[in-house]
Amino acid sequence: MAQAGERMGLRAEPIVLPMAEAAIDVDKPEDLALVTKILERRAGQASENRAI
Predict the structure, then answer these.
(1) What are phi and psi of 7, to 5 degrees?
(2) Does residue 39 belong to any structural domain of this protein?
(3) Which end of the chain is more exposed for a tag (fewer CB within 10 A), N or C?
(4) How far apart are CA 23 and CA 42, in angstroms?
(5) Region 31-48 average pLDDT
(6) Which domain holds residue 25?
(7) pLDDT value at position 52?
(8) In a domain, 7, yes or no
(9) In the predicted model, is pLDDT for residue 3 greater than 90?
(10) Contact yes or no for 34/24 (Cβ under 8 A)
(11) Into how many domains does the chain fold?
């Protein structure tokens, strides 16, 4: 990664995120379906937590 950054004149470093979903790119219909399911599930969990 550092070599790629040097070639482009940038500082490139990996960033570890706590959510693997952050790495999902939505460039195909299947990706959109996956992300939609994830967001719907999270919205449902948030509603359940508020009801408690």
Answers:
(1) -60, -35
(2) yes
(3) C
(4) 17
(5) 89
(6) 18-52
(7) 62
(8) no
(9) no
(10) yes
(11) 1
